[in-house]
Predict the 3D structure of the following.
Amino acid sequence: MSSKRDYYEILEVVKSAREDEIKKSYRKLAVRFHPDKNPGDPEAEERFKELGEAYDVLMDPNKRAAYDRYGHAAFQQGRGPGGGGGGFHDPFDLFREVFSGGGGGGIFEHFFGNAQDRADRYRGSDLRYDLEISLEEASAGADKEIEIRKLETCEACEGTGAQSGSKIITCSVCRGQGQVVTSRGFLQMAQTCPNCRGSGQVIEKPCSSCRGQGRREKTSRLKLRIPAGVETGFKLRVPNGGEAGLRNNSNGDLYVVVHVARHSFFERDGHELHCEVPIPFTTAALGGEIRVPTLYGETIAKIPAGTQNGTNFRIRQHGMPIYQGSGKGDLFVRVKVEVPTRLNPVQRKKLEEFAELCESDNTPIHKSFYEQIKDLFT
């Protein structure tokens, strides 16, 4: 009796499985047991070979029919799984076929890289710049100029990395692929080409200014427009404002992160602004008008008679602009009733007369407080 495991069991499918179900299961299992993911594991290597053998048989209608009828005996007597002495296919051939979709590229290409991978690899780096602005600038918007040190295209060679008159030729070692493939048994490994360092090209005479890089570090100045209404954490993307790519590959981007500085008078809460304004106790008692500073100039707020300390007043449309919207938030003014610390004799006498004239109805909060706590002392 054969010691081989059942092919359907190996691929974890039922005997009536369709071809697409077999292929899907093979994809999952082949990735799990691929030798590159299990280096030095002989059991995983054997499972990978076993998967390839089972897939080779079950995806061939003639082989599968023979296997369903006779089992492993259908491939004995030297015929092998191919039925005609052709033997079993290399599992890596099957792996390439399944993972490339039959037309090259696909998942398998990530093991060896492709032209787009190399272009991405030599693209300039993205950069971050932290910019602090005032609350006034965040409110009105601002034009800013920043200074940043970064890799820019070499002016001497115009980014080619080559001296004038020098040629850029295809690397003879990797033939322009940027990687070389080495084989160890049935394993294949891709490594960066040591001759061209992955670029796929070799410069005959490198530029003396940039040493063949096509870029040099220098200080650059950029002008930015900060829109009105931004908050701390706002990111402004400057396309191609990052570092220059290696040998005229595309530039990276610059991301400017805005930080709005704390204000000495206003506190910000989204679109709203908050501030505290002191008022004389006479204005709180009698009512009147007070001047309130805003980001857009002074405005007048009316204080009703009998205003208590800590009362908030809303001044509409005097807060922060709504970013990418219309209108502004509101300004909330908290009044702080100021009690005089020193009184001259005349002022003191007048206040004493006023206190004698006051009835309990004039101090409802004071009266209510003592009524609430009188039970504590009886």
